[in-house]
């Protein structure tokens, strides 16, 4: 059976079997969640990821201009060597961040991880994780509060009616 090749334009075009990505089969447009609906931690993470993506885009543009402005093989090789150094640095920072996330280290300690390979980073992350205090639970009340809104007297009939509802 011959293999079919699909061009990028064909891959992004909607087919009869699948509707376009913005409109589901019901014909209603899909609403993307507004950022103000997101919790605070998600907004911070989104801002952080967007900043990193912008940093990568600017580095890409700088690399493209350096390579296009190279006039000779020596300049081209120097630009390629610089790009390889930057890529190695980025790979180390990504590895450091993933190990820190795996061992639930704060972002400040992710940069403090030492080691050249993953095994050394994991060993150092385990040592640092011992000194991170466990987060305190939000509430230790067990779901019940001592004050149920009454004036302090317990009414057994009221409690019996409440328990029958569930």
Plain-language structure description:
There is one protein chain. By secondary structure, this protein is an all-alpha fold. It has six helices and no strands. It has helices at 8-12, 40-69, 73-102, 107-110, 118-130, 156-165. Helix 3 packs parallel to helix 5 (118-130). The chain is elongated. Residues 1-24 have low confidence and may be disordered.
Which ranges are low-confidence, i.e. pLDDT below 50, for 5 or more consecutive residues? 1-24
DSSP summary, beta strand count: 0
| Helix fraction by DSSP (H/I, runs of at least 4) | 55-70%
Bulk shape: elongated
Average pLDDT, rounded to a whole number, is: 75
Q: Work out the oligomeric state of the chains in this entry.
A: single chain
Major beta-sheet overview = none
Number of helices: 6
Structural class: mainly alpha
């Amino acid at each position: 059976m011959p293999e079919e090749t699909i061009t990028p334009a064909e891959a992004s075009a909607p087919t009869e079997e699948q509707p376009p990505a913005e409109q589901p089969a019901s014909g209603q447009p899909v609403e993307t969640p507004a950022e103000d609906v997101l919790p605070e931690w998600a907004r911070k993470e989104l801002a952080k990821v967007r900043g990193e993506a912008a940093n990568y885009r600017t580095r890409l543009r700088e690399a493209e201009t350096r390579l296009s402005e190279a006039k000779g093989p020596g300049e081209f090789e120097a630009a390629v060597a610089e790009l390889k150094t930057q890529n190695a640095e980025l790979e180390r920072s990504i590895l450091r961040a993933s190990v820190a996330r795996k061992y639930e280290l704060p972002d400040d300690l992710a940069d403090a991880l030492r080691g050249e390979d993953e095994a050394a980073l994991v060993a150092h992350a385990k040592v640092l994780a011992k000194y991170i205090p466990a987060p305190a639970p939000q509430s230790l009340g067990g779901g019940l509060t001592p004050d149920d809104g009454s004036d302090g007297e317990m009414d057994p009939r009221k409690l019996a009616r409440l328990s029958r509802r569930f």
